[in-house]
Amino acid sequence: MTKTSLFFVLLLVACMPPLSGHAADADALKVGLIAELTGTIPAVGASCRHGAELAVREINGSGGILVDGRRRRLELWSRTAATTPTGPQRPPGS
Hints:
By secondary structure, the chain is of the alpha+beta class. It is 35% helix and 26% strand. The chain has one domain (3-16, 26-82). The protein is built from two helices and six strands. The strands form three sheets. It has a two-stranded parallel sheet. It has a two-stranded antiparallel ribbon with strand order 2-3. Strands 5-6 form a two-stranded antiparallel ribbon. Helix 1 (3-15) crosses helix 2 (42-61). It is elongated, with a radius of gyration of 15 Å.
């Protein structure tokens, strides 16, 4: 995924309304990242995660995202989409 694509995915997800009211920080917008964090090519997933973390830091550092007249910060949630030569793995705790 290119940096531009990742930015637009993060931007689209960030503009969506929260799906759950059970957040620890009710003002934060949750942004999800599913990447190959474990499995056969974890370096690719780590690169995606680092790019997403950088984007979230930059957006939050500039005041967050304006939603309904309020500034809201982003919170990144990441999970693995680990695969092996025999197929996908289930992430720990799922």
